Amino acid sequence: MKQVMLFAVVVTLCVPAWAINKCTGPDGRVVYQETSCDGGKSVNLSGAGQADPGSPQATQWKSVIARQARDERVAAAIAERKIFVGMTADDARQSWGAPNKINTSIGSYGRHEQWVYDRGRSRAQYVYVENGVVTSMQTPE
Fold first, then answer.
1. What CATH number corresponds to the domain at position 119?
2. 73 with 126, same domain?
3. Is the pTM of the predicted complex or chain greater than 0.85?
């Protein structure tokens, strides 16, 4: 909860012209969102409607929201010991641990890695990483 409050304060100070609404849900929890609150219980923290949706401030705010959503998705995947395309190599290692073997190719197009996870009984899982980002996975099933 402290992170949400800090996030709201930082965004409010950094992007004063973009709409940030403090809403109270039916369960009493406070959430911060771009859109108006349901039921009219909206407290605009930043002067809604004053910024052009295509402005640098709006773009910055959307980027902050997207980053927070991605961070939450990564944290959930790591907690469930899953990986997905778009994760960083560091995120994948946190989720699955170090691979048993890494096959690397380096060329003008960058660094490509095949991570091999030995799952026993002639079963392996493969993770493909290009320039530090997971691009695909392969399972024996």
1. 3.30.1450.10
2. no
3. no
